[in-house]
Structures are given as C-alpha cells and as structure tokens.
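Example record for the data management plan.
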Amino acid sequence: MKEYLKRLNENNRAGHFLWLNRINVHSASQLPENINIENVLSDIEQRLPSSFLSNIESIYIGDFDILKQRDMDAMYADGAIYIRPDRVVSEEDLVDDIIHEISHSMEEAYALDVYGDGQIEREFIIKRMQLFAALEKESVPFFPRDYFLNTEYSEEFDDYLYRIVGYPLLTSLTINMFASPYGATSLREYFANAFEKYFMGEHEAVKKISPQAYKKIKEMVDRKEDEEYGNI
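Corresponding structural encoding:
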C-alpha cells in the first residue's frame, strides 16, 4: 500500500486536487464517466457538519489490492479513505460509501463518546442474538454462539454470513433489525451503517431500527453544530 501511494503521488499530479483547501484527493484510476467527484464531494459538504471531516487527510481512488482481496468498495485507514472505482455505480452510491468511511474516522476519534456507556454495544448484542435465533429457526448450518456475542470484526463470521447464510436470506431476516445486512458483521459496522443512513436522509428509519446509535449520532451533530455556531 505505501509503495502504491508513493507512485501515485509521484506520477499522478494531474489527478490531484484539494478538497476544502486541505484534504488531498488523488485519482490513480478513472471513475466511470457518469461520476463527477466534485459533485460528490459538494453533496457530502451539504450533508455533514464540516467538523466531521476534520480527521480526513486524503482520499485515494485506485485499484488497491487490499480492496480487491477483501472484496470491498472502500475503506478508511490512518486518516485516508480508499475507493475502488470499478465498484462505483452512481454519484449517490459514492456519496454513501464516503460517508460510511467518514463514520469510521469519527468513531475512531470519539470512541469514548460513541461506545463509552455501552449502550450501542448492548443494542448490537441484543440484535445479534435475535439473528442467532432467527437462523436457528431457518435451520441454517450452525455457527458457534460465541461469535454472535463478539462485537469485533471476524473474518470467519463475515464469511459465514456471506457464503453460508447468503445475503438474500440475511437481508430478509435483518429487516427492521439492522440498518443494512452488513451492519450485522461487527459493532463498528453497526454504527457506521446507522451513521451512513442518517446522513443519507433516513433519520426516522435509523431512529426506529437503531435507537441508541441514532441517539449518539444526534448528540454528535448537536454538539458539533453548537461548537461551529459558538453556542458553547
């Protein structure tokens, strides 16, 4: 990854610009013709408080092996968002992906605020056990109960949901339980999915499905708006 970024920085100056005068956006691979990255970033500016972007230093668009190996559209790591262009289908899709990764930067910086009181974790575990019971009822091949109680990401558990359960069944079982099926994979993804849906305008759906996550997101929004407008 580091060597790839070095080559990108050296050889792709024409595909570089600054967003908000400080966030480096590098494009080593072409996005689909129907995608205008400036439109996407402008849309995100309208949706999120500007301070929610304070932990993002760079956005990289390219054919990263780590994204292909893990079959991911995008990821956040060490202040940067990485995007796989061949998986982008529309500007709204890319807005959604970037907001999802911004959520990971937020929870990393404000982990104590988000998870400190254990409320989101309790909410997540309850839903995981509901999923466990639903899978038993559907006679899906058994997977150890302990994995359902583990809030951290597990490749084995993710693989079980994707390959054994399958996303069509998982989707039907998790309606009104998780903001999206992928939210069942870990506590971090549970929060990120709620964050993503909230800022894509689905406030009431998030409030209904993930009330504790909704509460934390709303508190973060209110606090950041107060800070920006000098109310505290």
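Summary line stored alongside the record: Confidence is low (pLDDT under 50) at residues 10-14.
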